[in-house]
């Protein structure tokens, strides 16, 4: 009897851990985005050199794709889809911030920066 209860508890724990993977991925992505925004605001974020308007547009397209992926993950409710969407969103926001900073550095006027 004890073996069956122990086995049941291990199974429940495994299922619970599996269901929390998506939540942990989302929380980690939110934290990483918050840190990137803080670096961007303080001016400590690394720059990539010069960036053009086309580079900014390319970055926004990646963010649009990440948004679509998040909407699809919300429909399927699959942990793997949620994790992939969280990772793509984190990377897209980080790329957009870096590209924006690079574009601002190459701007002609101080107002544009």
TrEMBL record:
GO biological process, alphabetically ordered: actin cytoskeleton organization; cell-cell adhesion
Of the GO CC terms on this record, one is: cytoplasm
- Stated name of the protein: I/LWEQ domain-containing protein
Give the source lineage, highest ranks first. Eukaryota, Metazoa, Ecdysozoa, Nematoda, Chromadorea
**What superkingdom heads the lineage?**
Eukaryota
The record's GO molecular-function terms, alphabetically, read: integrin binding
Q: Which organism is it from?
A: Gongylonema pulchrum
């Amino acid at each position: 009897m004890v073996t069956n209860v122990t086995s049941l508890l291990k199974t429940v724990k495994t299922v619970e851990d599996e269901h929390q993977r998506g939540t942990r991925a989302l929380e980690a992505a939110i934290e990483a985005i918050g840190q990137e925004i803080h670096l961007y605001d303080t001016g400590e974020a690394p720059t990539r050199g010069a960036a053009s308007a086309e580079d900014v547009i390319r970055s926004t397209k990646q963010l649009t794709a990440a948004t679509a992926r998040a909407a699809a993950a919300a429909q399927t409710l699959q942990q793997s889809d949620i994790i992939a969407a969280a990772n793509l969103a984190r990377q897209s926001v980080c790329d957009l911030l870096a590209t924006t900073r690079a574009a601002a550095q190459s701007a002609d006027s101080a107002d544009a920066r």
